[in-house]
Amino acid sequence: MKRLFVHKLIGLPVAGTGTAVWWETQIDPTLVFGIPMVAFIGKEDRPVENLQLEPDIKVVNDYKSILKGKDPQLERAVKEMLEEIKKPSKTGF
Predict the structure, then answer these.
(1) What angle do CA 45, 49, 55 make, to 5 degrees?
(2) What is the pLDDT of residues 12-69, one digit of tens each?
(3) 3-state secondary structure of 67
(4) Could you give the CA distance from residue 55 to residue 4 in angstroms, rounded to a whole number?
(5) CA-CA distance, 70 to 66, in Å (whole number)?
(6) d(CA 61, CA 71)
């Protein structure tokens, strides 16, 4: 969604891994290798491989919060949405 500028992206940076891989098992099942098959093209008109995605707002989902049943990223997203609906509508509704 960040590419489309629809909403703020909340979370942590995501590594640029934009290649689909076809995995092949050999006669010896302990030997497996991957063949890159499809690259995803980003707004830069190039494969997104190695282009890290940076969130607009960095929020860590730490281990202790998750164990307590909390989701800091989701909580921040809800907070941002509540702030957004308080703003005057751009459409007049």
Answers:
(1) 90
(2) 998 877 778 899 999 999 999 998 888 888 777 888 888 888 999 999 999 999 999 9
(3) helix
(4) 13
(5) 5
(6) 6
pTM of the full structure:
0.61
> How is 1-51 classified by DSSP, letter by letter?
-TTTTSS--EE--B----EEEEEEE-SSTT-EEEEEEEE-B-TTSSB-TT-
User: Does position 75 have pLDDT exceeding 80, yes or no?
Assistant: yes
Tell which residue, 1, 8, 6, 4, has the closest CA to residue 57: 8
Q: For 43, what's the count of Cα atoms within 13 Å in the CB-facing half-sphere?
A: 7
